[in-house]
């Protein structure tokens, strides 16, 4: 097959700019000027007859066409890099970029990373955490582990673990909680999801329309549960992710009532071609979470 002319400089400039959402940072990575990167991207847009970026006062935003092109370009350059690494090194290693919601990363994944490394020593795992919001294309992630229902546009999702939410607090606060209704007398530690506590109240056999007591809102379950350990209030979180704190007695679960509003999922872009490292990680996760 005769391939058409491939503007490799322009494609490389686009891929770097799309990852950083910045011509300036792309230029620093490619060791050229910002003007050169911008010029190459304009040439590519002209050749393709599409607009790949929306230029903003501070940075860039991918257009629909840019979002379609980025994963293809990233995969292609990654595969070229991997192939060159294999030719240049006798001990080939493959990089795997994974983003994980902080609760899962700290509560489940980190204690098991040694097992993964022992089984797959050729994989260099690069782990980042997020608060359940992530842009895999822009961040260059192979996988993202999220909490939810498994429905994300353009995303393939594999269920990992259920994550029912239960009340947890310090043993001292628990002495004041004789019945589920007593939670309204305590400070609620909660996420931005306003339906979590009302749904738990229903599961505990109470009315969901009770007046919301004093509360503190967190964008991270890790921070929320640290506050719970410090006695700042009572929190709703998945006990399975905080088993160490429950086993040590730092936290207790005063009531058996729980509510399920989602679970943990392994996700990747539907357009992402699965690498060998991705296959190994996905299969390892599947086995480990079902054990």
List keywords for this structure.
single chain; 291 residues; alpha/beta; Arc Repressor Mutant, subunit A; D-Maltodextrin-Binding Protein, domain 2; 3 domains; five-stranded mixed beta sheet; 12 helices; 42% helix; elongated
Describe the protein's architecture and organization.
- GO terms for molecular function: DNA-binding transcription factor activity; sequence-specific DNA binding.
- Residues 6-63 form the HTH lysR-type domain.
- This is LysR family transcriptional regulator.
- Keywords: Activator, DNA-binding, Transcription, Transcription regulation.
- The chain has 291 residues and is α/β, with parallel strands linked by helices.
- It folds into three domains: 8-88, Orthogonal Bundle (Arc Repressor Mutant, subunit A), CATH 1.10.10; 94-162 and 264-289, D-Maltodextrin-Binding Protein, domain 2 (3-Layer(aba) Sandwich), CATH 3.40.190.10; 163-259, Periplasmic binding protein-like II (D-Maltodextrin-Binding Protein, domain 2, 3-Layer(aba) Sandwich), CATH 3.40.190.10.
- Helix content is 42%, strand content 21%.
- It has helices at 8-20, 23-30, 34-48, 64-88, 102-109, 113-119, 136-139, 171-174, 196-203, 221-229, 243-248, 276-290; strands at 53-56, 59-62, 94-101, 123-130, 143-148, 155-162, 165-168, 188-190, 215-217, 234-237, 258-259, 263-269.
- The strands form three sheets. Strands 4-3-5-12-6 form a five-stranded mixed β-sheet. Strands 9-8-10-7-11 form a five-stranded mixed β-sheet, sandwiched between helices.
- β1 and β2 (59-62) form a beta hairpin.
- The longest helix has 25 residues, at 64-88.
């Amino acid at each position: 097959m005769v391939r058409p002319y491939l503007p490799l400089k322009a494609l490389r400039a686009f891929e770097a700019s799309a990852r950083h959402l910045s011509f300036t940072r792309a230029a620093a990575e490619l060791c050229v000027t910002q003007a050169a990167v911008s010029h190459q991207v304009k040439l590519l847009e002209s050749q393709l007859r599409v607009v790949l970026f929306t230029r903003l006062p501070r940075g860039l935003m991918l257009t629909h066409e840019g979002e379609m092109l980025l994963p293809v370009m990233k995969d292609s350059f990654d595969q070229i890099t991997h192939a060159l690494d294999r030719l240049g090194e006798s001990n080939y290693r493959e990089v795997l970029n994974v983003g994980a919601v902080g609760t899962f990363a700290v509560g489940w994944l980190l204690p098991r990373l040694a097992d993964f490394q022992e089984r797959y020593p050729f994989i260099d795992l690069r782990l980042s955490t997020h608060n359940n919001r992530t842009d895999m294309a822009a961040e260059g992630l192979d996988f993202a582990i999220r909490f939810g229902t498994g429905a994300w546009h353009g995303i393939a999702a594999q269920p990992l673990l259920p994550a029912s939410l239960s009340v947890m607090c310090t043993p001292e606060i628990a002495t004041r909680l004789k019945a589920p209704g007593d939670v309204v007398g305590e400070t609620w530690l909660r996420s931005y999801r306003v339906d979590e506590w009302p749904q738990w109240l229903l599961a505990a056999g109470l009315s969901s329309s009770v007046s919301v007591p004093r509360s503190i809102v967190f964008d991270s379950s890790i921070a929320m549960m640290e506050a719970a350990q410090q006695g700042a209030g009572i929190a709703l979180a998945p006990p399975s992710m905080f088993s160490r704190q429950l086993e040590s007695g730092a936290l207790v679960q005063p009531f058996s009532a729980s509510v399920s509003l989602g679970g943990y999922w392994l996700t990747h872009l539907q357009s992402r071609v699965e690498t060998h490292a991705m296959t190994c990680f996905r299969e390892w996760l599947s086995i480990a979470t079902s054990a």
